[in-house]
Amino acid sequence: MKRKVLNFLAVSLCLSWGISMPAVAQDPAKIWLRQGPNKLMDTPVVMEQMDIARDLAGDDPYFLTTQRLQCNDIDDTYTIVGPPGFNGSFTGAPPAWKEVPAVPTQVFDNVYYVGGMEVGGWLIDTGDGYIMLDSSYDYGVEEILLPNMEKLGLDPAQVKYIMITHGSIGRGGGDHAGGVKYFNETYGTKIVLSGPEWAKSDQTSIDHDDVIVPTDGQTLTLGDTTVTMVNTPRSVGGGGLSYFIPVKIKGKQHLWATYGNTGINSPLANIEVYLASMEKWFTYLDNLEPDIAISSHPFVDGSLDRMALIRECNDRSGNKNKWKGHGGWQNQECQRNPFLIGKEGARRYFEIMDQCAYVRYMREAAGISNTGLACLNGLDADGNCLPLP
Fold this sequence. Notes:
By secondary structure, this protein is of the alpha/beta class. The chain has a domain at 99-351: 4-Layer Sandwich (Metallo-beta-lactamase, Chain A). It contains eight helices and 14 strands. Keywords: Signal.
């Protein structure tokens, strides 16, 4: 597979929010790391690509969190595993692991986080109702979304659209579309999802007139907010939608980009689809130039830490649940919304995701597992992994 070389940003680019944090922003328990020791099977060619991803992350704690998770960047100290007690499936009765609520937070003037610790749930206030981005698990409606909305004084009846990054409707809804059926049946909320995932959905569970299957570049307008949508599948025959969402910080307009598929799935053919989707995404990225990039999974990019910083800064200003400005704040870290990373920073974030997908491709082609800890096709006489046939 020929690799398209991106015009990478200078690795000296460094964001400064005036905060002192460890090399990996999240607590290891939050991003599902455990101690080694580990034996890595990666070849020098794979590690050369890994180093590109590491250089892109630089010393930024949030980018490092994303790079380590997306690349499965493992050393002799840490390896990545599932969440504690997770049974490896989103189905079953009952699952051993269960999503828990995050602290609800007003992140921007017009955006609220009401989701869990593992998967996102965002509300965009358009002035004419809310657009929800992802909707947790099916049990997450009663246990996460509705309680968090109530804490922030947000009316669920005002959720006019739910935009799904990935996941089909019905059959549990997975971790992003679990709340679709409830909101549609209860409030008439319309649903936005990709064509392939609508085709896989339980189409008897929702009125077809309430479903929007967008084409690339199609927009959705509600109130004062126009969202641009892009199809970004991650697997052969799969689906996914990514979004550009206008937001306000202290009354000033900014643009938030969120990519619809965080996970990178084997086999090689799926990773090729992922890389092709990223290439398409960059054409929109370079045209629209967002200055905010946030994952649909808040542990992937330090979003939980950044929301905690927002709440702490608001506590200092006596404005406990609202992000309404920085007047009177003396500490440097409270002078700028930590999600605002600039146009170069947003592009750099997606370059990390793209490069990590390529690392995963190179690993699998070399017969190495996605963690770099095992061989997929046995060992040669020198103890190295045999490449895939």
